[in-house]
Design goal:
About 45% of the residues lie in helices and about 20% in strands. The chain has about 450 residues and is of the alpha/beta class. Helix 3 (about 65-80) crosses helix 6, helix 4 crosses helix 6 and helix 10 packs antiparallel against helix 12.
């Protein structure tokens, strides 16, 4: 489902209208709100049914659209064993309820992301591209009832006892799940399938055994520190990242074997060892051609930067989306181009990638891959360029947003491709300034 995320007065961001594409990049000035927005998108994707956003959803639907609520309730209660019934409700009903809930609960939602009541948001709203009918189907079998949403491609399963005891409870869960689908705008996204890779990931990786899970929980529970020395908690995306590193499934059979092999060969120049390979949970690096692995703390910054993503791809189940802060961190220009290639490959493999970046090389690589796709480049040309079909991407799958710091606030503008290319002012302006400075120096030397 295509929809716009409407944001106003959020940190430095005055106003933004965001449409998430399979590959979405936030570019622009420092301190302009890119990481704030990335954290917000992570929290939207990670929101579960018990999120503060959906608090009071059923009551509000009952008050504002009682007929819609009773349609769902009656369909569930009147579908007898062996029966199957279907109802349709306008999407505008759920959108209205969701936006009312967002207006009511947005500040608590945002404060929870950053663990600070000082972080607030003026407006948070969802606007779908078009109105449509939401189809809810109820199927009653001998010992269970399956309730599904056709448009959202999700279903709920309730056993007979729970339905008979509280049809209101079942109705509430159906309503919340439909609202959650509208909120996320995608199917299958939940807390465990969406991961945030913070800019400080190297430091967190090296200190992960010191910042243990108990310590994180203490830091997270800020109410315990009212009578003690103030301790600044981590943000929720960072806590989720640290938990993710501890909760990797070592028995998981990855679907990214080719990408992992390419990353370790072309970028890391060695293998990341973890878990079963070491009879423990230490992370080590085995350089190419060496028989002796190294502890992560003794490796280069490139290795420590790539390690979290490699671990995710190897051992994380249900991976659907990655929010990636500055993927070019510590990478030489040549490796920044490889990172651009990696982002495209991951998107073509089905992952949603949302990243902040200051790398003109990554953006230009994506421009080139879009141009090749538009040209319908031959296999011979791709081979000549050292590329394959998994390296090219269509413009329709890419969105780039320019953040501009104007002092008191920042503006956010969606860049429209010109002749199949994204023109990023924040990069071109900086390049022109340094060229002009170089020219002035050369003119002075000539005089």
């Amino acid at each position: 489902m295509k929809r716009k995320l409407i944001i106003e007065d959020f940190g430095k961001i005055k106003k933004a209208e965001i449409e998430i594409s399979p590959l979405t990049l936030f570019v622009g000035d420092n301190n302009s709100g890119k990481s704030y927005l990335l954290s917000l998108i992570w929290a939207i994707y990670a929101a579960e049914r018990n999120s503060v956003i959906f608090r009071g959803a059923t009551e509000l639907l009952t008050e504002e659209h009682p007929q819609a609520y009773h349609n769902v309730y009656d369909c569930i209660s009147n579908t007898k064993e062996g029966m199957k019934q279907r109802i349709k409700i306008s999407s505008s009903v759920f959108v209205e309820i969701l936006n009312r809930l967002l207006e009511r609960n947005k500040d608590k939602f945002v404060a929870g992301i950053f663990n600070s009541e000082q972080v607030m948001i003026g407006k948070l709203a969802i606007i779908p591209e078009q109105e449509f009918e939401v189809t809810i189907t109820v199927k009653n079998t001998e010992d269970a009832m399956e309730i599904s949403c056709k448009e959202g491609h999700f279903s709920l399963l309730f056993h007979g006892k729970s339905i008979k005891e509280d049809i209101g409870f079942v109705t509430e869960k159906v309503v919340e799940d439909v609202l959650r689908w509208f909120f996320k705008g995608a199917t299958g996204l939940h807390g465990r399938s969406t991961v945030y890779l913070p800019a400080a990931r190297t430091g967190f990786m090296l200190a992960k055994n010191v910042i243990n899970k108990v310590g994180r929980q203490v830091a997270y529970d800020v109410t315990d520190f009212e009578d003690r020395e103030e301790i600044q908690p981590f943000t929720k995306p960072i806590i989720h990242f640290l938990n993710m590193v501890e909760e990797l499934n070592l028995d998981h059979k990855t679907e990214y074997e080719d990408i992992i092999e390419w990353m370790e060969t072309a970028m890391a120049h060695g293998r990341i060892q973890y878990g079963n390979e070491l009879n423990g949970k230490e992370i080590r690096y085995l350089p190419e051609g060496s028989k002796q692995s190294l502890p992560l703390r003794t490796t280069s910054a490139v290795v420590t930067e790539l390690t979290p993503l490699l671990l995710l791809l190897k051992y994380r189940r249900s991976l659907k989306a990655i929010c990636y802060e500055e993927p070019e961190m510590c990478l030489h220009p040549g490796l920044q181009q490889e990172m651009g290639k990696l982002l495209v490959r991951l998107v073509n493999h089905g992952l949603s990638m949302i990243a902040t970046t200051h790398s003109d090389i990554i953006v230009q690589h994506i421009n080139n891959m879009c141009r090749l796709k538009e040209m319908d480049a031959s296999r011979e040309l791709l081979e000549k360029l050292g590329l394959t079909e998994e390296d090219v991407i269509s413009l329709e799958k890419v969105s780039i947003y320019q953040f501009t710091d104007l002092g008191e606030y920042s503006t956010v503008e969606k860049l429209i491709p010109v002749d199949g290319q994204f023109q990023v002012r924040t990069f071109s302006n900086a390049l022109m300034e340094i060229l002009e400075q170089t020219s002035e120096i050369q003119d002075f030397e000539g005089e």
